[in-house]
Write a structure and sequence with these properties.
Helix content is 32%, strand content 28%. It is α/β, with parallel strands linked by helices and 233 residues long. The chain contains seven helices and ten strands. The protein has a single domain, classed as Rossmann fold. The mean pLDDT is 94. It is globular, with a radius of gyration of 17 Å. Strands 6-7-8-3-9-10 form a six-stranded mixed sheet, sandwiched between helices. Bound molecules: adenosine-5'-triphosphate and magnesium ion. The site of magnesium ion has 4 residues, from helix 1.
Length: 233
């Protein structure tokens, strides 16, 4: 899938204060790319992912996915878009505490029916094959994060949006998860748009987008992205 953002704008109103979270964001991402979004805290990274993922509505602008404008979808079509096309890994993991790791992932799989991958296999991919029956409260932060990644990947979505998806992982586990994302991107053409502070992730990306104060200030294209297996951590 391809993604085209045109003049996206979003503000929040807090009492009398008007906060501009995104201002005139225009960006074209060809299909099959791995994109990294960088920027200081408060620069609009999460807001951008939320708009692309259809979780929040833009004030103005367009979000074209495969030529279709997501900002104009009816609520049922938007729900289908969120469910089938997008896999989200949030900054805060949002796991359901009363469900085990396997149940959390299986629930996401059920939502997409035949499109889903095998929940047990995806949990194995993220290194949690032996912890599938634990509840989120019985897992470390990094393990919970990997359940959240599995929950996004199990849907086999065309677009994976990650908000610091390796932020709670040690470097070894982070590299394994990154290698998994790299493989899915390269072998299955799934688009990844990932917010990170990890410089290593930027080196495997096709495109690095720098945000500041809600605006894109720089886009670097990388014709020869690194393989995570070759990186020094
Ligand atoms: N629900 C909200 N209500 C009011 N203001 C908000 C809301 N969400 C975000 N903002 C504001 O919008 C701006 C962009 O926030 P955003 O969460 O997108 O930043 P970010 O780049 O993800 O930051 P961080 O790296 O800290 O996660 C900030 O000024 C933030 O305070
Ligand atoms: Mg954020």
């Amino acid at each position: 899938m391809s993604l085209y953002l045109e003049a996206l704008t979003k503000h929040y109103q807090v009492g009398s204060e008007r906060i501009v979270a995104l201002w005139g964001v225009t960006l074209e991402i060809p299909s099959g790319e791995f994109v990294v979004i960088l920027g200081p805290s408060g620069s609009g990274k999460t807001t951008l992912l939320n708009l692309i993922g259809g979780l929040e509505a833009a004030d103005s602008g367009r979000i074209e996915v495969d030529g279709q404008d997501v900002t104009r979808l009816t609520e049922p079509d938007l729900m289908r878009y969120r469910r089938y096309k997008v896999g989200l890994v949030f900054q805060f993991f949002n796991l359901i505490p009363s469900l085990t790791a396997l149940e959390n992932v299986a629930l996401a799989a059920q939502l997409v029916g035949a499109q889903a991958r095998d929940p047990r296999q995806v949990l194995e991919w993220v290194g949690l094959g032996d912890k599938i029956d634990r509840y989120p409260g019985q897992l470390s932060g990094g393990q919970q994060q990997r359940v959240a990644i599995a929950r996004a990947l199990v849907k086999n979505p065309a677009l994976v949006l990650g908000d610091e998806p390796t932020g709670s992982l040690d470097s070894h586990t982070g590299r394994d998860v990154l290698s998994l994302m790299y493989r899915l991107n390269r072998e299955h053409g799934q688009m990844f748009a990932v917010v990170t502070h990890n410089a290593a992730i930027s080196t495997i990306a096709h495109r690095v987008v720098h945000l500041r104060d809600g605006k894109i200030v720089d886009v670097q294209c990388n014709p020869n992205p690194a393989n995570p297996a070759d990186l020094e951590w």
